[in-house]
Design a protein that fits this description.
single chain; alpha+beta; OB fold (Dihydrolipoamide Acetyltransferase, E2P)
Length: about 200
């Protein structure tokens, strides 16, 4: 460490750590229904950035509920057949078939449930009355909107980056010092500064 007097001219950039920046896309394609954010707006984690509309969201929710009801019936049948098999009323073949159907529906239900979570729909609270053609695009971090790429009615695909958000925590200032300036102040030592806020 050494004290430096005077002014040193340096070039550099302000960057942020990877965990403090986010590119936000929609998990499934859809049409932009609403958004009122502009570059420079502050956003908080969990805040709605835009509302996206697509009838595929409806199909996904309907399929989930359809499989859920079939699964509930299959689960009851599986338990009933297992009990009857214990009492030697049913054959092993019937129990195996019931078990296979039950496990298949359970796997399908789990799979579609995960897809719903990706688009922001909670499977645990989904009912026939809560089926919706729209989803909310949520901010994964708090920070400021660096870039927006949306307009009302525009179709967006999963590969489109709709928002770039930059957090202001742990900003890094990377400075590069020219050799001639370094020689003047540090006796021929070439330095690069990394300043953490």
């Amino acid at each position: 460490m050494r004290q430096v007097s005077g002014i040193i001219k340096a070039n550099g950039i302000v960057t942020t750590a990877p965990q403090n920046s986010a590119s936000v896309s929609v998990p499934l394609g859809g049409f932009v229904k609403s958004s009122n954010l502009l570059p420079g707006n502050a956003v908080s984690k969990g805040q709605t950035l835009a509302i996206i509309e697509n009838t595929e969201f409806v199909d996904l929710q309907q399929n989930y509920l359809d499989i859920k009801y079939k699964y509930e019936f299959s689960e009851a049948e599986y338990k009933r057949h297992a009990e009857l098999y214990k009492n030697n009323v049913y054959s092993e073949k019937n129990v195996q078939q019931t078990t296979s159907e039950y496990r298949s529906l359970k796997a399908q239900l789990k799979g579609i449930g995960q897809k719903l979570k990706v688009i922001g729909v909670n499977p645990a609270t989904l009912t026939e009355d809560r089926i919706s053609a729209t989803i909310a695009l949520i901010s994964p971090i708090s920070g400021y909107v660096k870039m927006t790429n949306i307009s009302m009615g525009k179709y967006v695909s999963p590969t489109d980056v709709l928002f770039e958000i930059v957090g202001t925590d742990n900003l890094l200032l990377e400075l590069s010092l020219f050799e001639k300036d370094a020689k003047h102040h540090f006796n021929r030592t070439v330095c690069a500064f990394l300043y953490q806020q």
